Input
Amino acid sequence: VQLQASGGGLAQPGGSLRLSCTASGSIFRIDAMGWYRQALGKQRELVAAITRGGTTNYADSAKGRFTISRDNAKNTMYLQMNSLKPEDTAVYYCNADKITYYSITHLSTGYDYWGQGTQVTVSS
Output
């Protein structure tokens, strides 16, 4: 089971980007997922999280500008980022706290999966 993040890039202040995170493998169920970011020289911080049922939680810095969503059928999570600011510049990582997947003869569960990170740069 792996998480693959994509969609980062360069945006101007006030612009938008949409990040995606897709889980691959023989997945049965993904529980809560989230987006984190780490700016240069800073600690990784939570940006937004979403439960399997769609309940969301945002960092204060993301409220009103970012929207987290997921498509359980596609094992994919999204982060729509609008009104981007230079301080949003960071590497963005996706996380899944618990994934249940098919093994050869039974279901297995793994915890704390991370994607590889995607760079978001906001600059004029």
Notes: The chain has a mean pLDDT of 96.
